[in-house]
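Chapter summary example: a protein plus flavin-adenine dinucleotide.
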Amino acid sequence: MKDLAQQKTIVLGAGISGLSAAYHLGLKGYKPTVYEKDSEWGGLCGNFTIDGFRFDKAVHLSFAKSEYVQELFKKSTPIIAHKPEASNHYKGFWLKHPAQNNLATLPTEEKVEIITDFIKNSDVEHEVNNYEEWLRAQYGDYFAENFPMRYTRKYWTVEASELSTTWCGARWYKPSIPEVLHGAFTTQTPNTYYADEMRYPATGGYKSFLSLMAKGSRIELNKKAIAINSTLKEISFENGTKESYQHLVSSLPIPYVVSILNDVPQDVIEASKRLYASSVAIVSLGFSKPDIPEYLWYYIYDEEYLPARCYSPSMKSPDNVPDGCSSLQFEIYFSREKALALEGDDLINHIISKGVEMKLFTQEDIIVKDARILPYGNVVFYNGMEADRSIVQDYLESVNIYRVGRFGEWAYLWTDQSLLSGKKVAQKEL
Ligand SMILES: Cc1cc2nc3c(=O)[nH]c(=O)nc-3n(C[C@H](O)[C@H](O)[C@H](O)COP(=O)(O)OP(=O)(O)OC[C@H]3O[C@@H](n4cnc5c(N)ncnc54)[C@H](O)[C@@H]3O)c2cc1C
């Protein structure tokens, strides 16, 4: 134990994966220090508060399957369990989620188009080389074009044909023809969402799930790493300080790590420049009334309305709002492939005018409004991304930089997977 404690171990980034790495390394006997650029720990699991309204950084609900993660979360905070009852907004209609087997509220012509294609498609052999082909094979052309392919442009910021299929796995439910027909006649359909329950801390926002790990970790805030010398094993921070290390675990985005690392071969630099992630603009609204939101979260397919998704912080937990109030937060995705169409007040005004048009709320209900940017949202799985990622990962491995989390592993990880990614590093022989 003593030896490990003396081996100077640094973790970069105090999001869930960095905190998990530090916590689990600590359990093994290391004494790591976590360096975080922001003034608070939490990363994407963090939050901000305006006039008593707490907003997480995007939706954040836990549907962790791992019993280990569930237990750790339970030990950290009392939990509220929600049913995963989401909705979909499409051409002015509200459909239960998932849309493909909940068509009941659509006009007859739409149902006929969707179901005809679905049936036509069911006994055809498909060659699948990209996400668009996968969607067409799963759902038929009409549904694919009008629902997931539109959503892909809004959420992934590129055409579905430009994405690989390695990330989608069990996330999209494929119903049988009887299920589609059943859902076209009645809204009384069973829940087929990929999780049974969505969990959320009773108090303190999503971040409370991380509190046990944070409590056991040594964290230095306002320490942005700006250079890593893997030969000297030394990190420079923006505030002019330097730290040497024996072991380095990083949850920072791997293209950024390459950009601050010494003597990186040209092919690795080039591969890292091809990797990219989407960013998220979040627009948060606080209301003076308690009953504004109708759904815990919903997806928006119409492209003239910029957000891809909206959720209610006050439905996640009443602790997120002052008494008698409620709140919504909208997510708008952009990337180097798709610019953010509106910013700041213009974006807020767009969200408000569309929300009023959709009868979600009135202007007079709004007492808090805010727009801000999360620079790193989703890793984009363009065709060939995995090969570029391997070049970068292999190099970082060769210079003994251990990578954890969504941006360290450069994968589509949820919080539970990011936590387990941090835990995994403690099982390695550093
Ligand atoms: C829009 C959106 C919605 C999501 N919803 C859910 C959900 O409902 N459920 C779910 O389970 N998961 C959800 N996720 C996924 C979840 O947010 C991630 O899996 C998880 O938060 C990633 O944690 P991380 O520690 O790997 O990365 P991060 O949280 O990004 O942590 C990295 C940390 O490194 C810090 N850092 C960056 N650069 C430097 C530097 N130079 N020096 C020092 N520190 C630095 C950052 O400030 C940050 O704190 C969502 C993600 C997004 C984008």
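Key point: The longest strand covers residues 279-287.
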